[in-house]
Amino acid sequence: MDVCISRRFFVVIFSNFHSVYGLMRVVIQRVSEASVVIEQKEKARIGAGLLLLAGIEEADTDEDIEWLCKKIIQLRIFNDEAGVMNLSVADIRGALLVVSQFTLQASTKKGNRPSYIRAARPETAIPRYEQFVACLRETSGLDVQTGEFGADMKVSLLNDGPVTILMDSKNRD
């Protein structure tokens, strides 16, 4: 018996899956340096390491956060002595700068104004963001700096490579 599922059907099912089950998104940027300024005062600064932009959704779970933390800390995206991406941020004893960014949850399906309906509300997002930061600290033992949740931040970075990776909590292939 042949089964045929149209692409449109798959996209609808896939979209509904993420809407129901959550999707924490993280943009990972390998940096030589990065900083956050709030109201003309420097809040955080790191040297070599990772700048993480985190977008949290209502349905994100403890499991999502733990998986992302471990995966990010173990990602081998830093060069070894042969110039091959073989080392993790933990291997180089780098630092992490974590910035909450609800706009990563934007939907641009309809119209020209992004919808942020998938982004977690502050009462959910703040504890999840703090949990994510705590997990990174505990998992890595590295210096983990942060922005300020909900603040108007000026984020500066010197992308090294450039190396930029997008991860989400439900795409674990």
Overview of the structural elements:
The two termini are 29 Å apart. The radius of gyration is 17 Å and the shape is globular. β4 (78-79) and β5 form a beta hairpin. It has 173 residues and is α/β, with parallel strands linked by helices. The protein has a single domain (22-168), classed as D-tyrosyl-trna(Tyr) Deacylase, Chain: A, CATH 3.50.80.10. α2 crosses α3 (122-140). It contains 3 helices and 8 strands, in the order αβββαβββαββ. Strands 1, 2, 3, 6, 7 and 8 form a 6-stranded mixed β-sheet that branches. Strands 4-5 form a two-stranded antiparallel ribbon. It has helices at 7-21, 62-74, 122-140; strands at residues 25-38, 41-46, 49-55, 78-79, 85-87, 95-100, 144-146, 153-168.
General form = globular
Rg computed from alpha carbons, rounded to a whole number of angstroms: 17 Å
Largest sheet properties: 6 strands, mixed
What is the fourth-level CATH superfamily?
D-tyrosyl-tRNA(Tyr) deacylase
CATH architecture call: 3-Layer(bba) Sandwich
Low-confidence stretches: 1-21
Ends distance: 29 Å
List the main descriptive attributes of the protein structure presented here:
173 residues; D-tyrosyl-trna(Tyr) Deacylase, Chain: A; six-stranded mixed β-sheet; two-stranded antiparallel ribbon; disordered N terminus
